[in-house]
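Box 3.1 A note on notation
Throughout this textbook, protein chains are presented in two layers. The first layer is the amino acid sequence; the second is a token string describing backbone geometry. Keep the layers aligned when reading.
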Amino acid sequence: MNIVDASGWIEFFLAGANGPKFKPVIENTSELLVSSVNMYEVHRVLSRKLPVELRDMCLEVMRRAPVIELNDERAIAASELSLKHGLAMADAAMYAIALEHKAVLWTQDADYQGLKGVKYFPKP
């Protein structure tokens, strides 16, 4: 399984330099999970950068894969990961969901660099 963090989704949707690195993972929806936390982050950024109709089309692309909610057990796991690795809340939630589902976390967020199960691409 794979999970792409918000930085990867945004890079893909806005056709950034690293977008092609995330494309095959995003298109393979049978092996993809989406976090509800990512829905928030991507919606927030795309709302500032794209027309509403295009933003909503992007969110529909995300919904092609199962959306995993942040429940109380995941929030506690995220808190423990935050304390252990110094991650912000959203980053810790993403990492907790990835670990729970034994998914590779695809990102260009340097906060994840060096963590087990993370495929990190530096921002150009």
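The mean pLDDT is 97. The two ends are 26 Å apart (CA to CA).
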